[in-house]
Design goal:
mainly alpha, 64% helix
């Protein structure tokens, strides 16, 4: 088993608007005792602050993209109103990181 320490910037960088390819690997390695993730109070506190900022950033980005899609759909007379901004991927990734560093 290897001990690893991942700093807050790296946790933030792991967040992806779409499908995250790296977090499932970290989960697998941790769950199967290949790695032990070491965290200290500073990383946990910083992550708590940054995850809220990232949540807002991705939410604002999704809302802006949705607004642009609606504007284009109106101009092109295409009905896309059933589309809604999704931030579930980011929420799931934040939950995964919370679990990994706990």
């Amino acid at each position: 088993m290897k001990n690893i320490l991942i700093d807050t910037c790296s946790w933030v960088d792991l967040l992806d608007e779409y499908d995250n390819k790296l977090l499932p690997h970290l989960e697998f390695w941790k769950d199967n005792n290949y790695i032990n993730i070491i965290c200290n109070k500073v990383i946990i506190d910083e992550w708590s602050k940054h995850k809220e900022l990232q949540r807002k950033k991705f939410s604002d980005s999704a809302a802006t993209k949705y607004k642009h899609v609606i504007e284009v759909s109106k101009k092109e007379n295409i009905s896309l109103s059933h589309l809604k901004p999704k931030i579930e991927n980011v929420e799931n990734q934040i939950s995964c990181i919370d679990k990994l560093i706990s």
